[in-house]
């Protein structure tokens, strides 16, 4: 990771935008349940009200995080296709001959099994590599290797 704004894949952008829309809907629903006068009601009502306020705080923090991540991705522009970086789509051939198309992303973007975080052993090994280069990395079963076949959308 460069320390500057990092791009994200189109898939990760769509997922974050959907999560943001869902969070905004949830926030509207929770906010609508809050009472104007928290002094009204018994202690159970007040505890319930406090729980909803805490839920709003949690929602607001996540909304802020996602909004900032989308803004940073916009500043970063599209993922590079000449060298592997955060946001790249990478097709990799493993030592056993299997080929997989992976997304290099951040931990917060863990969308599915095809996402490799930039701070994982494979992710760190792939960062900065070009098509045709091989990488070595550690796995729980020992050292492994892979070759970068392509960067960008998977070959048709």
UniProtKB/TrEMBL annotation:
Residues 81-151 form the Transcription elongation factor GreA/GreB C-terminal domain. This is Nucleoside diphosphate kinase regulator. Keywords: Coiled coil, Kinase, Transcription, Transcription regulation, Transferase. Residues 132-156 are annotated as: Disordered. Pfam families: GreA_GreB, GreA_GreB_N. Residues 13-76 form a coiled coil. SUPFAM superfamilies: FKBP-like, GreA transcript cleavage protein, N-terminal domain. Residues 7-74 form the Transcription elongation factor GreA/GreB N-terminal domain. One of its GO terms (molecular function) is DNA binding. InterPro entries: GreA/GreB_C_sf, Tscrpt_elong_fac_GreA/B_C, Tscrpt_elong_fac_GreA/B_fam, Tscrpt_elong_fac_GreA/B_N, Tscrpt_elong_fac_GreA/B_N_sf. It comes from Streptomyces misionensis. GO terms for biological process: DNA-templated transcription elongation; regulation of DNA-templated transcription elongation. Gene3D superfamilies: Transcription elongation factor, GreA/GreB, C-terminal domain (3.10.50.30), Transcription elongation factor, GreA/GreB, N-terminal domain (1.10.287.180).
């Amino acid at each position: 990771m460069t320390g500057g704004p990092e791009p994200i894949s189109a898939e990760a952008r769509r997922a974050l935008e959907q999560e943001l829309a869902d969070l905004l809907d949830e926030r509207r629903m929770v906010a609508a349940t809050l009472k104007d006068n928290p002094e009204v009601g018994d202690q159970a009502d007040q505890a319930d009200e406090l729980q909803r306020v805490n839920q709003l705080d949690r929602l607001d923090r996540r909304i802020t995080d996602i909004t900032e991540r989308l803004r940073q991705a916009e500043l970063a522009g599209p993922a590079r296709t000449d060298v592997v970086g955060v946001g790249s789509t990478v097709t990799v051939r493993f030592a056993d001959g299997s080929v997989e198309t992976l997304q290099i992303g951040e931990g917060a973007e863990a969308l599915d099994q095809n996402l490799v975080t930039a701070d994982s052993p494979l992710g760190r090994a792939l960062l900065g590599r070009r098509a045709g280069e091989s990488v070595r990395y550690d796995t729980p079963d020992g050292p492994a290797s892979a070759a970068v076949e392509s960067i960008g959308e998977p070959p048709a």
